[in-house]
Amino acid sequence: MKVTLWGTRGSLASPGPETSRYGGNTSCVQVRDEETLLVLDAGSGIRRLAAVIPDRVKRIDILLTHLHLDHILGLGFFGPLFNPAYETHIWGPASVTMSLEQRLMRYLSPPLFPLHLRELSNWLILHEVPNGAFDIGEFHIDCNLVCHPGPTVGYRIEHSSGASMAYLPDHEPALGVDHFPEGPQWTSGYDIAQRVDLLIHDTQ
Q1: CB 74, CB 47: distance < 8 Å
Q2: Which candidate, 157, 173, 131, places its Cα nearest to that of 33?
Q3: Please, which pLDDT band fits residue 186 given cuts at 50, 70 and 90?
Q4: By three-state DSSP, how is residue 128 classified?
Q5: Residue 166 CB: number of other CB atoms within 10 A?
Q6: Which of 96, 126, 142, 152 could form a disulfide with 148, with the two C-beta atoms 3.0–4.6 Å apart?
Q7: HSE-CB for 109 with a 13 A CA cutoff
Q8: Which residue, 140, 158, 170, is CA-closest to 64?
Q9: Cα 26 vs. chain centroid, distance in angstroms?
Q10: Do the beta carbons of residue 23 and residue 45 sit within 8 Å?
């Protein structure tokens, strides 16, 4: 399992010398092995990721934690969506009133974006989460709702090699709590992060 951080900023892309160490792009993380490419969130960093996709990769899976703009604003500028050589799968949460497709269309449609979601690609497949664990290539993925306005999910990714990681970029486990109670009740989101090799977590 190889992990590359293409975007680490929240809320707003902030390029410039003062952000050169970690980069100025918003949330986007690449997870891959020799055959499979996973993309965690589609912030502005996804545009740079597109330039280094190996030729042998023909399927790309984008796992969205939630649909705040800083996590999806790169979708419409992701080159493989316009290339029939790629099959792109997008995994993300629906809401209680709207499907994932309907929610994405609120951004990927005029007047906010010049094209409609259905015009981006005929090879785009949508999956709603959380709906239990699933497998993509040699990766086993589990997800669960976490505390953040959204709805929002976090992902746990385990590779057949034994490596594991958890991705919880926007997570407020103590939201609305006056103090930090002891015990298992204060575990929102952390259940999928137990004993992983790598944890990517909101640090605000």
Answers
A1: yes
A2: 157
A3: very low
A4: strand
A5: 24
A6: 152
A7: 8
A8: 170
A9: 11
A10: yes
